[in-house]
Amino acid sequence: MSTRNVVIAGEAGVGKSSLINLILGEARVLASNDAVGVTLETTRHPTTIFQHSYYLWDTPGLNEGTQGSLASKRVEEILRNLLTQLEKAHGVHLLIICFRGTKVTRTMQQTYMSITGICSKVSQNIPVAAVITELEKFGDSPEAMEVWWENNRNGLSNYNMVFAGHACITTLTDECHPPTNGRYRQCQFAVHQLIQRCSRPPRSTSSRSLNVVLFGETGVGKSSLINLMAGKEVARVSPDASACTLDSNEYLFEMGPTRVQMWDTVGLEEPDTISEDRCFSAIEKAIQLIKSLSAAGGISLLLFCIRANRITITTQNNYRLFYEVLGRKEVPVALVVTHLEREHQMEDWWPRNEKMLEQYGIVTAGHACITGVVGHPKYQQSQEAIRALLLQYDEQGKFMMPSEAWIGRLLKGLVSFVGDKAFLRGRDMVRILTKRCHLRSDVAQRVAACLEQ
Fold first, then answer.
1. What is the pLDDT of residue 178?
2. Checking DSSP bridges between strand 258-266 and strand 209-216, what pairing results, if any?
3. 90: left (phi over 0), alpha (psi -120 to 50) or beta
């Protein structure tokens, strides 16, 4: 049940942003009726349609003219880059071209040719559908608005404009003139059906398992995040100050046909709070974690949970421990930013902070901006965002190493992050690894030798 990508394109001011709000069922995107568009870069909006996860991609409008914010060549370049990146990663499952419901014109044909020309160079397999907007004058339902398509079918054919499907709609709410009960919901349903009908299937539709290591400092909201993903309370939400680094709790839940196995793992603490005993406890927990991951077949995804306040050296070290050491830079890292309930639009946090994260060396393969507060108006939106993020990786292969080498690598990295190795001197590490961590004597000897290097 992979997340599917739907790209919305068209001329400036035809109602692409309003169409996305209609699909989402809420005014999440700033919309404008001006010929100068309001979308200056691509924006991504997660949603669920008929129990499938989708990303809706809003793009800048074409043909803004001399008063526009972006030149047409730049708009075409943005669209080309987006389609190329999506197709290489997880695929473009549908491209929707949005048109205003006027007479078919040469400008509409030029828009169609520009967009489909870019699309065909990226892939010959991307279906292209049409959504015709501003058709409220034709009637109070999509069936009545279908008259526009019948009246313009020949014009579309004469201009060689061919589509995999279409929907004739209005994005006006029921309260707008003329007031019509149920019109908005019917138009939303028509577009949902179009997306379901015309989207190409994911590259693989077989049942999948997803092994996720969730990590972050204590108190960032990992338990609330797990409950958000699972859709029910499976993790007890209460900060445990006694938990030590790499202590983990394992959870199992379903997201559609995808079986998610998740290890909620305590990340590094501030260096000066880690005592010698807690360091040895962390070593013990690290070995338990590796054994559990090995038994499960490895890691599909690292999920890094942070609070939306400040990035610290400890945040940076957690990223490095899990991405560079545990996953050997071979497992994708996705970032979840929590406690964003006060943001007007939660996704606005990302463009403000992405550069700062990169300055700390934190580069991720995806992100979700969420709130884990149950009952909050943005809770469902958060659930859609995190599920869409995870389901991008349900076709991801699983990384693992031989257990002994993996344990040695993680322990060596762990010790380097919690301070120098002075406390190891004079210790009988073989005895500690056998008695406390239950390693075989021969394995303990090799791991201890690795730590001393």
1. 77
2. parallel
3. alpha
User: Which is nearest to 10 in space by CA: 135, 110, 81?
Assistant: 110
pLDDT in tens, 201-233: 886 545 578 999 999 988 899 999 999 999 998
Work out the pLDDT band at 418, boundaries 50, 70, 90: low
Distances, alpha carbon 373 to alpha carbons 223, 240, 249, 339, in Å: 11, 19, 21, 8
Please give the torsion angle defined by the CA atoms of residues 78, 81, 86 and 87, in that order, rounded to the nearest 10 degrees. Answer: 130
What's the rounded Cα separation, in Å, for the pair 430 and 283?
13
Partner residues linked to 303 by β-bridges:
214, 334
DSSP notation for 207-221: --EEEEEEEE-TTSS
Q: How many whole angstroms from its chain centre is CA 365?
A: 9
Helix, strand or coil, per DSSP, at residue 451: helix
DSSP 62: B
Of residues 1 and 311, more confidence is placed in 311
Task: Say which residue the tokens 């949902």 belong to.
Answer: 192
Which residue type occupies 53? S
Closest CA to 98 of 210, 187, 20: 20
CA dist., res. 33 & res. 35, Å (int)? 7
Count the residues in the chain.
Answer: 453
Nearest 5°: phi and psi at 401? -130, 165
pLDDT above 70 for 125: yes
DSSP 77-100: HHHHHHHHHHHHHT---EEEEEEE
Which residues sit opposite 262 in a β-bridge? 212, 251
CA distances from 131 to 30, 137, 162, 165, 195 (A): 19, 16, 13, 9, 10
